[in-house]
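Students often ask why we bother predicting the structure of a whole assembly rather than each chain alone. The short answer is interfaces. A chain on its own may look different once its partners are present, and contacts between molecules only exist in the joint model. In this exercise we take two input lines together and write out one structure for the complete complex. Read the inputs first and try to guess which parts will touch.
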Amino acid sequence: NMENLQQTSRNLLVCDQSSLRHRKCRLSQQVQQHHFNHQVSLLLPECGSAPPPLDAALRSFSSSYLLRKLPLHELLDTHFLQDAVYQGSVYGLSYRSRIDEDTCVALLPSGQLVLSLDKDVYERLGVEGKPSRFNQRANSRYVVTVNLTDSSMAPGGRGYQRLLTGLKSRVQLQTDFLLSHHPGGGEALKALLSRYDWTEHRPQVSSRLLTNLPCPTPLTSDLPSCDPHSFLEWLGAVEAEVSCDNESTSFLSTLVCPEPRAVLSRALRVRVSGLLLPQDVYRLIEELRRCWDGRGTASWAALTVQGFADSPVSWGSREHGFLKGGENFYSLLLCSDHSYWLCMGTGAHDGCPP
Amino acid sequence: MSVFMDLNLRPTAERSTLQSLLDTAAHLGYSAVAINYVFEPTSKKKQEIPKPTPTSELFDKLPTVQGRSRPIRVLNRLTIVASDASHFRPSAPEFRSFDLLAIHPTSEKLFHAACMTFDVDIICVTVTEKLPFFFKRAPVSGAVERGLVFELCYVPAIRDSTTRRYTIANAVCLLESCKGRNVILSSGAEKPLELRGPYDIANLGLLFGLSEGDAKEAVSSTCRSAVLHGETRKTASGTVYTKRLCTGPAHQACTDSTHQQEVTDPGSEAADEPAAKRARPAPAVTDSTAPAVTDSTAGQ
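Now the answer. The structure tokens for the assembled complex follow.
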């Protein structure tokens, strides 16, 4: 079985090619379904600074709130349900919990509460769930999915009581929790914020000017000059600031920019990180599109959105796990003619992106 | 998957080294470690089985595991290096103070006896020299059925290139017989620099012939089942256990120092180990704030 050593962990890459002008363009669904976004990175070629409307869009991502030591039964609190879950969309993710070691919790905007529990906790909680898809031999991880907007989970209902008793008395789960609400923001969450230690997190924006950047050319989405894998390798190298020169004296990296290539005199890389809402990400994409309606200096832009490595879900409610890495990301190559290339990638313990 | 564990940390005479070893283990992401006291009885003179120093005396402060909010859990383990069955008396009262019992057999006869009959949790595999015997399928399957685990240490492979060859060769030999089940990878480290992170050790498992999932289990879930197997030894097949009853403010100090996290349910986990010690349905769980003697009756 020495041949196995040459293989890397399985990963999945789904590529979609279409145009924003196309009637059946699925970009909006694909972006909105990726609920938990940790970082958005934008690469603008031949740009020294972001145009003002784009800059404004980058700086207007919603804040998120980190609650310390939140007992999970509070997510079933009636005021929280009324103000946040039933109105608009609430995004919640447990913080500093590892999906392959601990209990992880996610609250999806659809009102679904996803609990990824290890065997001991699951057996004590007493609520029905399914074994994780990525269990090896014995079932060591279970996923409990509960729809808080369902009639059986209405406060006072049987399902609600069972989960509440489980979380309050049988297994007192408590974790740091990241919360965000659209469109209400902090106001909708004040039921919980008033009772627990919290801090507000404004998404951090940082930018960096890159010079003399080799880049594959031409980058258009209808005539791809390089295949998606090579393009993503190059884009990843740019994001990670790994040199693509492949000098004979350097042993650190043998990555190369795909041929044919050109050298950009300058490019701007802007990064936003935090708990970012998909609505804000889509607004950024729309703003990028509007930039080209006015002027056409650049012919393309690349946007990469990284998900959380320890989130229980990747797209929609597809289960996400962590074997050697927890990547769930997508890269969007947007061209001036409004056509695009969307590459969605996940790792070994993941379902297929939409 | 469960939390990462390293079940073989070797204490040296210096307490500060052990403290920094523990700090490094917590920093690397191990949630539980076991301090391994090695006992090599010889027939020449009667030796005493070492007593484990209580954790509270050894360490001033238990470091928090990196990325989580719990402190690291420290267990005590005894390894008996023996070639003869007479050296091992399973009912010796000294064994009760250890959470884990391991045996390092140096002869085929003892290996067979250890796999089939001995009341231990871990069987150590020689990694520093040529295997003194071959692994036969029968005792290995017998051990797997009873819930025992086989341990491979990686620190000798770091220290020396000759032992590295032996480690890989012996590991491949073991894995041919046991098909990747019930194997744990642990360090055997004496110094902090010898420790490696759990994901790196899972990658090392690939070299030995484990699959990716099995290799990750070798540092997490399989270690957990070894620890639970150790708990069942103390608790009459995992269904009954007693706890000292304390009242008043002193009761926190009375709780067993090895049960630092919430006391888990030994009964249900005894059913984890493949076909070992079929336990009745889980007894009620107690946590450290409810001093009581639990007994096994109906499930929760």
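Check your guess against this: The longest helix of chain B spans residues 161-178.
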